[in-house]
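TL;DR need structure tokens for one chain.
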Amino acid sequence: MRALVRETRLHPANFVLPLFIVPGEGVRRPISSMPGQSQLSIDQAVEECREIRGLGIGGIILFGLPESKNEEASGAYDEQGIVQRAIRAIKREVPGLLTITDVCNCEYTSHGHCGRIVNGDVHNDLTLDWLARSAISHARAGADIVAPSDMMDGRVAAIRAGLDGAGFSNTPILSYAAKFASVFYGPFREAADSAPQFGDRRSYQMDPSNGREAMKEIALDLEEGADMIMVKPALAYLDLIRQARDRFPDVPLSAYQVSGEFSMIHAAAANGWIDLERAMMETLTSIRRAGTDFILTYFAKPAARLLT
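>> reply
TL;DR here they are.
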């Protein structure tokens, strides 16, 4: 009877699993702060994607760790970059699996920031060309959706113009429209080797106190051509997910259940304080109930197994 009248339902197709791609072959390197998650070489990522497709999971989002980094983030838009090669391999070996790419620079810059550094600060406008070039290279490699996560002002318009000019007018943009300067990103910085070498990212990521500003940022990204929007992180921002759903009812809406949220649940479960499976499903349900259409989550595989 409970199942019959249940208001909010989860399905594996609601999940997108983040994958971290590294150079080499046969590499499956566990991420110590994220139980069950690993950095994967391209061949191992292909194997992972076969399992993901078999579980009915909605798709993947790729993050790349290049062989080398520099101040120009050149690995981000290199046609033979780690993510570009991974896209081609996955599309060849696991056809039909929805492939999203993270469009950012922090994994590729020697300083770990998301943009070009000028006089010690991230220069917003000079970073836009990098982002557009990265998105075009991902689309050319076969990405289904590009997802800019840098939080530079004007990046959606620059990427949309770049994609259209390169013949990829049908490639959608999933914008990290409301991405907050959050404490919950800690484990990700190990996973993606992307910690800033100086300062922090509060000058371009959002203040967690500002809900009205989040709605403004979402509206601006939609005006610039975003096709889908994201709130990141998820659990501490459920109120803003609901506000976004109410204010933008016809726009596909997602949220990212980030590394710190994932690891926090695992840590509490490891100490016997909570039940892991119940906490996993309860938090995912809350994110869906708040109004999301799909969720980026490291719980995608175990949740999909429970649901099927």
